[in-house]
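Ticket #271: bound-state structure for magnesium ion.
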Amino acid sequence: MAEHMTEHHDDRRPAVATEHRAPTVIADDLHIVYRVYGTGAGKGSATAALNRIMRRGPATNVREVHAVKGVSFTARKGESIGLIGSNGSGKSTLLQAIAGLLPAERGKVYTHGQPSLLGVNAALMNDLTGEKNVLLGGLAMGMSREQVRDRYDGIVDFSGINEKGDFISLPMRTYSSGMAARLRFSIAAAKDHDVLLIDEALATGDRAFQKRSEARIRELREEAGTVFLVSHNNNSIRDTCDRVLWLERGVLRMDGPTDEVLQAYEDFTQG
Ligand SMILES: Nc1ncnc2c1ncn2[C@@H]1O[C@H](COP(=O)(O)OP(=O)(O)OP(=O)(O)O)[C@@H](O)[C@H]1O
Ligand SMILES: [Mg+2]
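RESOLUTION: The complex was predicted; output attached.
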């Protein structure tokens, strides 16, 4: 098992020994395979497609995509872990597996507590107003109406949605993609999570919002949860995470302190 290194070379924060803390996520030789049906021969004409749909018996032409290959690591309470790697390297797939949304082909992933996956596609309703979505999102995360009411103002303030007018009472479809992403993040961040999985949620926010989000991620981590952050922005990772997992073609290439892994990754992508 690829245990992470214990030495910290990060002088902005004191080194914290986390080995004694309870594990929250354990991946043990985890393999994830997607199966894509109906690919290959006979594409093109509508009759060919119809024949394919009508054909009896087991589907032919199954294509397998081996997206995560034998990944092992242990995450503990209080850790904030960055996930990096080039496009298609398996980061989103790994988060979905941790969230329990994809079955393991081989190996296992154990998650302690309730994982929450916060993605760019999180289920908010475009035709509902921001207000309604705050309620909906809060309830979906298991908060009571009472709790949502208590935190409502905090969520709206954090999102900054109303900075440019009363947008929170307008439908989500009138928001820019950055505004929508901010509201999603704000809703998710209002709750303390056992395991919070964030997939590129900060990517569309502006600089000020990114800074606020990064601060909140550090808080969530201090509230004893575990945060996983997927990002192509190395600065976000540097400011938020004390440990980084680097995936390449589904394989865990490196697992260690943020500075070391980012350095190796930068050498790799520039080389
Ligand atoms: N639903 C799916 N069905 C089939 N293959 C998929 C599916 N989702 C992802 N894949 C494949 O799995 C591999 C890993 O994809 P994944 O989305 O996990 O990458 P990623 O690291 O998140 O990339 P990015 O940085 O672009 O978000 C890729 O080869 C991709 O084509
Ligand atoms: Mg992805």
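RESOLUTION NOTES: Residues 91-92 surround magnesium ion (ligand 2) (CB under 6 Å).
TICKET STATUS: resolved
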